[in-house]
């Protein structure tokens, strides 16, 4: 585990920074709202409230229960509501506190102020904040004033006011509270981010360690899942990679074993036959011819093996260019089967061939020959004692379908997925006919078919035989 406590680029530090910044940001907003703008907010809220009540009163003016509405509104909202005539006399006065806050001459001052504000606003109603001159001190009053028209046509004035509570004291209290909240939230942000960061980074650190172990060649490692989905997915992906890596590693080992075995056997045979010719059969033309033939055959096998390996590596690296042309797959298939005629005659193999005419496809013909040859050759190598192999080319639904079936002992389902892999040879090698085969035939087939975007597969029943098939678009 990383011993570094403060790594500025580390997840822990970053998370911690974000958390603290977040908390600080929220605090700043709170401070601004609560301390700096509290008064402004409060005043505009009050004015708004007054305005909407005032508008309702103006609308209700003239109705029968207007007086009652005035009193009711005053009582409910703690407002002073007064109506003056042009001369400054109060026509109605709805003020629950009127008894103890009503200095003399207030009416006329109020009326004067109202008229002035109305004139300034150029409208018949206005809301404003006024330094109170009735209650003295620095208290402010929110006022709504409107000019109405009495029954006789003379102007009358509606005045609704409410004192504004001083917010300084509140601000002080809030300030103290906010100080505590700020300190606490920063502290919690600090602690919380530390734990969250640990929870997030610990599994990552563990994965890193396991990966380092894997890099030393230990394929037995297991990437540990932990905590959250992304890590679990990463661990799964890494475990899968490890599996694949170890498979490749195994295959590589097998390759060395297989190839060296496959190379050594013919080389040994070649050497011993050459020695035999030198020491024994050199003067006997018949024996010499037979022995040289063995040498030639083995040399052929060697060169086939080498060219298979080359082919595969060229195809896998993508350096073998494809040369597509349109041709009849049935023709090609028949030609390929003919190559096995020697076996049919000499070793008693029976080939049953069923090919529809005009199975035109567009592909690289020589590559397709290789596919067909490899598949038939496998069927020959693995077919049962009856030595039967059937090959067919059919066409349907715009596809040309090739298949080759043998009567061998089949492939167990658990090995079906692997036989297409390089150097993979299923089961024991004892049930194969001859020693031909390098474990790369099907890998070559798979590569060629994949390049042609062909569909392909195998059905196999243990004890009954296998059918390998592929399908190309018809032309
Ligand atoms: P090989 O040179 O060993 O035949 P391939 O790549 O052609 O290599 O095939 C891989 C393995 O798949 C073979 O070793 C064999 O176990 C299995 N296999 C391929 N074709 C058949 C078949 N027709 N019947 C049974 N097993 C087969």
Features:
single chain; 475 residues; alpha+beta; five-stranded antiparallel beta sheet; five-stranded mixed beta sheet; 12 helices; 12 strands; 19% strand; elongated; binds adenosine-5'-diphosphate
Please give a quick description of this structure:
With 475 residues, the protein is an alpha+beta fold. The chain is built from twelve helices and twelve strands.
Descriptive report:
By secondary structure, the chain is α+β, with helices and mostly antiparallel strands. It has twelve helices and twelve strands. The protein has helices at 11-36, 38-60, 66-77, 106-121, 168-215, 229-279, 285-317, 329-339, 341-347, 365-382, 413-416, 441-451, and strands spanning 80-85, 90-95, 125-131, 140-149, 155-164, 324-328, 350-355, 360-364, 388-396, 399-406, 455-461, 465-473. The strands form three sheets. Strands 2-1-5-4-3 form a five-stranded antiparallel sheet, sandwiched between helices. A five-stranded mixed sheet has the order 7-9-10-12-11, covered by helices on one side. A two-stranded antiparallel sheet has the order 6-8. Strand 9 (388-396) and strand 10 (399-406) form a beta hairpin. Helix 5 packs parallel to helix 6 (229-279). Residues 428-435 have low confidence and may be disordered. The structure holds adenosine-5'-diphosphate. Residues 378-379, 381-382, 406, 408, 411, 419, 424-427, 437-443, 466 line the site of adenosine-5'-diphosphate.
